[in-house]
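STRUCTURE:
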């Protein structure tokens, strides 16, 4: 009679190997997720720095508008972070509404139009340059009228 494939001894051994492999895969998955999060944060920081550089170029340093834009962007970051960790549906809805309002305020402060709301300027007609005609070289179109003979009246 052939020996059974799984015995209590080899089942224990396979269970230990399986448990160890799952631990390794879990650690690798956690490391990969941490690396993805770090990459996303780095990309977000670069995007924020680019936005800040554009803002600095567009607005004076001590401008009220610049301070408001920076303040609204900080609030947007804070609310976005709160959305990431929230699980309650009602609070998520409220945070999403708050985020939407903040993004609308930021769009208005930065002067960005809504998609499709800015019409392209009408095509300008090409202006025709006036022609300069040298009158010295112009010849008459009609033949000159012959002079009638003068009649002497006395």
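SEQUENCE:
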């Amino acid at each position: 009679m052939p020996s059974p494939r799984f015995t209590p001894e080899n089942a224990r051994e396979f269970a230990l190997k399986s448990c160890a492999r799952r631990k390794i895969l879990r650690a690798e998955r956690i490391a990969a997720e941490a690396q993805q999060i770090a990459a996303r944060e780095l990309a977000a920081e670069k995007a924020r720095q680019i936005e800040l550089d554009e803002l600095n170029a567009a607005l004076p340093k001590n401008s009220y508008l610049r301070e408001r834009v920076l303040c609204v962007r900080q609030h947007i970051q804070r609310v976005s972070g709160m959305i990431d960790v929230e699980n309650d549906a009602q609070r998520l809805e409220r945070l999403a509404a708050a985020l939407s309002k903040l993004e609308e305020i930021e769009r208005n402060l930065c002067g960005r139009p809504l998609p499709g709301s800015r019409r392209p300027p009408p095509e300008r007609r090409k202006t025709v340059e006036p022609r300069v005609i040298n009158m010295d070289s112009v010849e008459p179109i009609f033949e000159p009228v012959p002079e009638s003979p003068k009649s002497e009246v006395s």
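REMARK: The helical segments are 8-58, 64-85, 89-110.
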